[in-house]
Amino acid sequence: MDVQLFVPCFMDQLYPDTAFNTIKVLEKAGCRVRYNENQTCCGQPAFNAGFRDEARAVCAKFLKDFSGNEIIVTPSASCAGFIRNYYSLLFENSASNNDLRYLKQQVFELSDFLVNKIRVTEFGASLPGKAVYHDSCAGLRECGIKQEPRTLLAGVSGLELVEMNDVETCCGFGGTFAVKFEPISIAMGEQKAQNAVDTGAEYLISTDMSCLMHIQGVMDNKGIPLKSMHLADVLASGY
């Protein structure tokens, strides 16, 4: 299957290795991966900050950049959830509405694509140790992803997956929420980090690098020796 890869803008700038590992995993699953170098952002930051006209311009560019017939895969439930659930608010009663209706069916978060679309769950990955999985708000509530990442992690050799308390509670990042409400955001991140530590886990895994960036920052500040990893990095490990 030919797939288009959409890399979140912050991942492109801060975590490019995770983007490359996403390609590695998709190719391992038998996909031919294409990357449109014109791509930029899905428009979510501007939308969440209340700048709808600016967001609409960025989203219109996304529609143009991904106007083909191929499946679009992104290692971000946040971006996938935004495109699926909020683009319609920006392009309601517009000429782009028909294109958007088709696009929403073509966009997949990585674990959703692997488990539900092409049904590939084994990658020969290996990561000895104990881990917890963090359900991101976007993955759980906007994309309906719950079991998919856990199914993929169950196939990782040597990895013991345990559940932490309040696993479905927000980590406190929330994009601009972390800037506007810093004390609340930090407190929520500290609670999430503590719940992970209490399990005795060595790794904290999620589908969203934005959540992991926030939680890792809290853990580094607190001197907590627990490593955050994106699902793609785990699935690409050991081979």
Query: What is the CA-CA span between the terminal residues?
Result: 22 Å
Residue-averaged pLDDT: 93
The helix count comes to 13
Order of helices and strands: EHHEHHEHHEHEHHEHHEHEH
Strand order of the largest sheet: 2-1-3-4
Give a quick account of the main beta sheet: strands, pairing sense, barrel closure.
4 strands, parallel
- The total tally of domains equals 2
Overall 3D geometry? globular
What is the topological layout?
Layout: E1 2-5, H1 9-14, H2 16-28, E2 32-34, H3 44-48, H4 52-65, E3 71-74, H5 77-90, H6 97-106, E4 107-109, H7 110-117, E5 126-133, H8 137-142, H9 147-154, E6 157-162, H10 177-180, H11 182-197, E7 203-206, H12 209-222, E8 227-230, H13 231-235
Parallel strand pairs: 1-2, 1-3, 3-4, 5-6, 5-7, 7-8
Helix pairs in contact: 5-6, 7-9, 11-12
Question: How would you describe the overall organization of this protein?
Answer:
With 239 residues, the chain is α/β, with parallel strands linked by helices. It folds into two domains: 2-117, no CATH class; 126-235, Rossmann fold (3-Layer(aba) Sandwich). The chain has 13 helices and eight strands. The strands form two sheets. Strands 2-1-3-4 form a four-stranded parallel β-sheet, sandwiched between helices. α12 (209-222) links the parallel β7 and β8. It is globular, with a radius of gyration of 17 Å. It starts with a strand and ends with a helix.
